[in-house]
């Protein structure tokens, strides 16, 4: 049966997977509600350090067209995925999308709600919505231009054309491209690295980057300076620096 799985791995790494292969992991209300429930769990998990989104074969071929075809305006509002995607984007821990196969429309927007994207060489990414008489409605018109600039975002959104992983890398839509059979392994390697860093510092860095990009440079630098100085109240800062000086590995306590 179609569903969403949340798996706990070592070092506080969590993996969220969509399991609806018969529809190339197209997202319907039920799947998105399940993602929302999993986000509740992730928020409560004090041991969580990094979340990977990864589904077998296809990341997600977009919103379920059959489920929304007959929607009117109110129905479309009720079907919309943004509240859940916004919660995903606001998670305090870093999030990594590991993209194999298709990441289209609402699937691409799901990946855009994460911090980092790793794609397989054979991945196909884009926003086909205009072929359906709509435009991206789960953050695509807002997050894509901020990530890759308005010109590339307009090219993708106006043409509806899916791009290869290589082209997505040139645009900055993904962080890196690896062989298809290495996508999860590479995401896991990166997540492991993140998970072993000072957790308070990583979380606050995410917060400052996300809040700072919505500010002018002066206010952003002020925010950075204040938050940076606060880190010197943490046990992890003492441990990180003492471990460096003593030439040993730090043992962070997340406080
Ligand atoms: N919604 C519903 N069903 C979908 C789907 C989707 N987005 N994408 C694929 N499927 C279903 C197909 O209907 C098909 O089901 P049946 O076997 O029951 O016919 C099954 O998945 C396999 O798909 P195809 O036979 O089409 O596979 P293919 O390899 O020939 O083509 C594809 C793959 C190019 C991805 C094609 O499936 C496709 O174009 N899918 C739609 C992509 C799309 O337009 N996504 C955007 C949706 S709108 C959106 O996301 C709005 C938003 O902003 C939130």
What does this structure look like?
- Keywords: Lyase.
- Homotetramer.
- This is short-chain-enoyl-CoA hydratase.
- It catalyses: a short-chain (3S)-3-hydroxyacyl-CoA = a short-chain (2E)-enoyl-CoA + H2O.
- The protein is α/β, with parallel strands linked by helices and 255 residues long.
- The protein folds into two domains: 3-195, Alpha-Beta Complex (2-enoyl-CoA Hydratase, Chain A, domain 1); 199-245, Lyase 2-enoyl-coa Hydratase, Chain  A, domain 2.
- 47% of the residues lie in helices and 15% in strands.
- It contains twelve helices and nine strands.
- The chain has helices at residues 29-44, 65-68, 73-79, 82-89, 106-112, 140-148, 150-159, 165-171, 183-195, 199-212, 217-230, 235-245; strands at residues 3-8, 13-19, 50-54, 95-99, 102-104, 116-120, 124-126, 163-164, 176-178.
- It has a six-stranded mixed sheet with strand order 1-2-3-4-6-9, sandwiched between helices. Strands 5-7-8 form a three-stranded mixed sheet.
- Strand 1 (3-8) and strand 2 form a beta hairpin.
- Helix 6 (140-148) crosses helix 7 and helix 10 (199-212) runs antiparallel to helix 11.
- The mean pLDDT is 97.
Secondary structure layout:
Elements: E1 3-8, E2 13-19, H1 29-44, E3 50-54, H2 65-68, H3 73-79, H4 82-89, E4 95-99, E5 102-104, H5 106-112, E6 116-120, E7 124-126, H6 140-148, H7 150-159, E8 163-164, H8 165-171, E9 176-178, H9 183-195, H10 199-212, H11 217-230, H12 235-245
Parallel strand pairs: 2-3, 3-4, 4-6, 5-7, 6-9
Antiparallel strand pairs: 1-2, 7-8
The structure holds acetoacetyl-coenzyme A.
């Amino acid at each position: 049966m179609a569903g969403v799985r949340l798996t706990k791995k070592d070092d506080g790494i969590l993996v969220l997977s969509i399991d609806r292969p018969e529809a190339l992991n197209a997202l319907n209300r039920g799947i998105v509600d399940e993602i929302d429930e999993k986000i509740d769990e992730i928020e409560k998990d004090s041991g969580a350090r990094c979340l990977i989104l990864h589904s077998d074969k296809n990341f997600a071929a977009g919103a379920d067209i059959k489920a929304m075809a007959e929607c009117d305006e109110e129905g479309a509002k009720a079907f919309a995925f943004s509240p859940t995607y916004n919660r995903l984007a606001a998670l305090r821990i870093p999030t990594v999308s590991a993209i194999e196969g298709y990441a289209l429309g609402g699937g691409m927007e799901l990946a855009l709600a994460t911090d980092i994207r790793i794609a397989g060489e054979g991945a196909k990414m884009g926003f086909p919505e205009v072929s359906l008489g709509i435009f991206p409605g789960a953050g695509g018109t807002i997050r894509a231009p901020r990530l890759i600039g308005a010109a590339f975002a307009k090219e993708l959104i106006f043409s509806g054309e899916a791009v290869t992983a290589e082209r997505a890398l040139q645009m900055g839509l993904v962080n890196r491209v690896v062989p298809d059979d290495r996508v999860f392994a590479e995401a896991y390697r990166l997540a492991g690295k993140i998970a072993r860093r000072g957790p308070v510092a990583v979380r606050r860095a995410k917060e400052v980057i996300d809040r700072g990009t919505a500010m002018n440079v002066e206010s952003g630098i002020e925010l950075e300076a204040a938050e940076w100085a606060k880190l010197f109240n943490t046990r992890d800062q003492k441990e990180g620096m003492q471990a460096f000086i003593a030439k040993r590995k730090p043992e962070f306590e997340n406080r």
